[in-house]
Design a protein that fits this description.
Length: 194
C-alpha cells in the first residue's frame, strides 16, 4: 500500500520516527540502523514503508534502504517471525550482514536478535537461504550467490572455529575464485593469516 513516505522529520527516538508529510504526521517503527542514518529533526527525510495489518492494529515500519525493507518482508514471511522480531534482527546487524548470516547458516548470529531463539533462527535459515542467495543485498561481503563448493568452504572454515561472516568474507575475497573446496579453504586460511 505504501512504497515510501517522504517529508520533514518531526521527531526521532529509539525505535520510532515521525515524518510530517504535507501536514499529516506518520509514525514509523524503525531499526537502529535506519535511525542512525536519519537526518536532523526539521530536515527532509524519506523512508521506504511497510504497512503491517493485524486484527487490533495497523503499524507502519520504515526503512532507510529498499533492500532493508525487502529483507524485512522476507523475514516476516517465516512462521514465528513477526514484524517486531524482524525489526530486532535488522537492529542487531545490517541487511547485508543478516543476509550473509542466513546464506551461510549462522544461526548463532541471528539468534542474538531479541525475540528470535536458536530454533527460530534455524527455521529462518532453512526457509530463506535460497531466496537470500538469489537476491542481492549491499553490504553482504559476497558478490554472487554462494555455490555448493563455496558453501562447503565457508562451512569448513566455520568448523575450524571462524565465525560465519569472517569465513564468508575470506572466501568472497579470493580472486580468481578457485574451483575446488580444498583449495578455497587453503587460500582463505592463507589470506586470513596475513
Amino acid at each position: 500500500m505504501y512504497a515510501f513516505i517522504g517529508g520533514i522529520l518531526e521527531a526521532a527516538a529509539p525505535g520510532r520516527v515521525e515524518i510530517d508529510c504535507g501536514g499529516v504526521g506518520y509514525s514509523l517503527s524503525v531499526s537502529d540502523s535506519t535511525l542512525s542514518r536519519m537526518p536532523k529533526v526539521g530536515e527532509p527525510a524519506r523512508l521506504y514503508a511497510h504497512l503491517s495489518v493485524r486484527e487490533d492494529a495497523l503499524e507502519l515500519y520504515g526503512f532507510y534502504e529498499r533492500e532493508e525493507k525487502r529483507l524485512f518482508e522476507m523475514l516476516i514471511s517465516v512462521s514465528g517471525i513477526g514484524p517486531k522480531s524482524a525489526l530486532s534482527a535488522l537492529s542487531v546487524m545490517s541487511a547485508g550482514s543478516l543476509a550473509l548470516a542466513i546464506a551461510s547458516g549462522d544461526a548463532d548470529a541471528i539468534a542474538r536478535a531479541q525475540g528470535i531463539g536458536k530454533k527460530t533462527a534455524q527455521r529462518l535459515i532453512l526457509e530463506l537461504r535460497d531466496k537470500v542467495e538469489e537476491a542481492s543485498f549491499p553490504g553482504a561481503p559476497y558478490a554472487a550467490p554462494l555455490g555448493e563448493s563455496t558453501r562447503e568452504a565457508v562451512e569448513a572454515l566455520m568448523a575450524l572455529g571462524y565465525p560465519a561472516s569472517e569465513a564468508a568474507r575470506a572466501i568472497a575475497s579470493l580472486s580468481p575464485m578457485p574451483e575446488g573446496t580444498d583449495e578455497m579453504v587453503f587460500l582463505a586460511l592463507k589470506g586470513m593469516g596475513k
